[in-house]
Structure formats: C-alpha cells, structure tokens
Amino acid sequence: MRARVRFLDICPLRGSRPFRDLWIGSSASQLGGQIATVAVLAQVWDLTGSPVGTGAIGLATGLPMLLFGLLGGTLADAVDRRTVVRATTAGQLLAAAGLCAQALADNRNVLLLLALVATGAACGALGAPARRTFPVRLLPADQVAAGLALTNVSFQAAMLAGPALAGLIIARWDFPAAYAAQAMAVAVSLLMVIRLPAMRPESADAVSGTRRPERGGWRIVLRRPTLWGSMATDLSATLLAMPIALFPLINEIRFDGNPRTLGLFLSAVAVGGITAGLLSGTVTRWRRGGLVQLTAAGVWGLALACFGLAGPLWLALGCLAVAGAADTVSVVTRSAVVQLETPDAYRGRVSSVEHVIGVAGPELGNFRGGLLASATSAPFALVTGGLSAILAIAAVAAINTPLCAYRTPPPTQPAAPKPAAPGPADAATATG
C-alpha cells in the first residue's frame, strides 16, 4: 500500500464541488458554535454566578435537540432536504443575531439568553437529520467514509481551536464580538447551503417534491442488524464509559486540582481525534466498516479503563489521546455504515435516531459516571465503565454477524466510453 493512502483522503474535496461547499459551510458553523458555547457559558456565569445557572445551559440545548431532532427526521423524508437545511440554518443565523443584540444591549435577563440558546439549538436539531444525509447523496459510495472523516476532522479542529479563540475574542472585545463571530460563521454556512443542488428524498413527487414519508421509517433500524448493531455499539461506548464528568474529580485526587491539567484532559482527547482524522486515509479504505467500528469502540473502552488506573500525567494524557483517536474512527465508520445501509426514503428518520443517540448517549453516560463515582470513586467508575463497555460491545459482535461481516461498496469504476457512431467515410469503407 502506498504511503499516501495512510493520510487524510481529500478526494471528496477535490472531486465534488457541492461536497466542498458543504464542508466549508459545516466547518465554519462548527467553529462559530464552539465560540458561542464559551461565550454563553461565560455570560451565564457572569449573570448568575451559580453552577445551577450554567447547568441550565445543558437543559436549554439538550431538550430542543431531542425533541426537534426526531421531528427533523420525518421532515427530511418528506420534503427537499436542502430546503430544510436552508430554513433551519437561516433560523440559526437569526438566533445568533439575537445573541449579539442582547449582548450589545447589556442584557441582564438570563432567561432571555437561554431562550435564544434554545432557539438556535432547536433550529440546528431540526436540520441535523437532513444535513447528515448530504454526504451520501453528494459523493460516490466508496468516498462516503472519507467525506465523513473530513467532516470529523473539521469538528475536532473546531473543538480544539474554538474555545481558545473565544477566550481571546471575549478578553479583547467582550461578548458582542464573540456572538458576531458566530453569526458571521453561520452566514457562511448558509451561503454554502444555498449553493447545494436540490436533494429530494427518492420517490418524492416529481411536481411538488413533497409526499408522505414511507411507513416504518424508524422501525427499519430494528429490522436491519447492521443499523441497530452499529447504533448499539455507539450507545454501549458512550452510555457506559463517557469520562468527561469525572475529569474534575480525577484532576482533584491525582493532580491537585490544577485547572491547566483539567484543560489538558480535554485537549488530549481532541488531539487524539485530530491525529486519527489526519491519518484516516487507510481506515476509510478498509471495507470491513462494521468490524472497524466494533474494534475502535472496544479500544475506546480499554483506553478509558487504563485512564482510570493511570498515575503519571503523561500516561493519563496518552490514554485520553488513544480514546479520542478510537472515538474518531468509530464515529466515522458508524456514520458511513448507517448512511450506506439506509434506503434514501428512510435516511432522514434513521439519521434522526442516530442524532438522538449521539446527543443522549454521552449526556446519560456522564450522569451515570457521576452517580457511580459519588457512591464509590472516580477511578472505580472509569475502570468498571470501560470494561463494561468492552463486554457490551463484545456481546453486540457475538450476536450480530451481519455487522461483523459488513463490507462497504467497492470503488466506483469509471464507465467505459461509448464507441463513436460510424461517419460517412467509415460507412463507405465498410461497404467497400
């Protein structure tokens, strides 16, 4: 195998202008979202000075994501998906403008701030299922995983750079500038979405482009082992082994509560994810997508169990970097399997199920870890959580042979050129 395939595969960016537009817009939106997240957290703390207030941010974002994410799945299977994403991105832009306006007006009402946050989250969740279906419609089947890897890399980069950039902007120009940066990023995303081609669900009405979604949209997840197995693997990894809520306690008992160390924990996960993304060219070319996801999810659980036992800081950070890399591989392969295995008529609703699992799993996993750590200890919660995740993933692999055997489609071969029709001279030669 040539060395170049070991690195990030940028063929989707070079070969598809619509996907390139989508990637640019999504990258800008993700960076703006990270900036806004820090700004909202800082402003709510400034207004309330209470952890209850900052905790309410999770409620203001989580509930709309769950409720509108499922509704967005049905919508994405009924109308042109580009139209859905255009409208919801425009809604996000209005919410970002509202955040900027309230900051400029020196708003002191935390409920108004949280309402604007909830509005933006609802718009994003409503468009998320439709947006998830774009890569598989814009790229050849053999490039879908590479396209998803590119998207994941931009997300990890935004996670790494966004908070630091937000801190610089807030320190120099205060909250209005941070929200203005988010609004500009969402405006770029909207412009890129406008440039995309129409993407009606297959079998949509040829005249109006609307139809009733085919029945059994969400039940298809249970009927196809590759789909429920892939989602069960992800849920096992996040529900049983999510470590974020335990970072402060681990930092307190092992590293004297140094806030710099706490920041390093989060950075290590992001660095591992970006590294895996930059070296994803080989992984996205492996056709055993189901087996790759199962293995990566198992490595995630093992790395976090080792993090629970790690003493030296370098070892703890190394375990988190491995976990971040494994998570990136698992997410990319899972998304590719789900999109490729779902008929287009059901992709919106199946994507909404995937979205809800991706939102709820980590939050419930953090809650589980916090409860267990309060009753026992943080190291015990991490070790047992990681080992439990490995056992659950092994059980999925044992009972789900189709997922283990799943192969992504082979590379698309270019069509052979049709022979040219014989001209008058050729016909004369043939008859002579």
Number of strands: 0
Run of helices and strands: HHHHHHHHHHHHHHHHHH
> What helical percentage do the residues reach?
over 70%
User: What's the number of helices?
Assistant: 18
User: Could you report the average pLDDT, rounded to the nearest whole number?
Assistant: 83
Q: Any overview of this molecule?
A:
The protein is mainly α and 432 residues long. The chain is built from 18 helices and no strands. The N terminus and C terminus are likely disordered. The radius of gyration is 23 Å and the shape is globular.
Throw out a few tags for this protein.
single chain; 432 residues; mainly alpha; globular; disordered N terminus
Give the topology, please.
Layout: H1 11-15, H2 17-48, H3 51-76, H4 81-104, H5 110-132, H6 134-138, H7 144-194, H8 219-223, H9 225-241, H10 247-255, H11 259-278, H12 280-285, H13 289-309, H14 313-341, H15 347-375, H16 378-399, H17 401-405, H18 424-431
Helix pairs in contact: 2-3, 2-7, 3-5, 3-15, 4-5, 4-7, 5-15, 7-11, 7-14, 9-13, 9-14, 9-15, 9-16, 10-11, 11-14, 13-14, 13-16, 15-16
In short:
The protein is mainly α and 432 residues long.
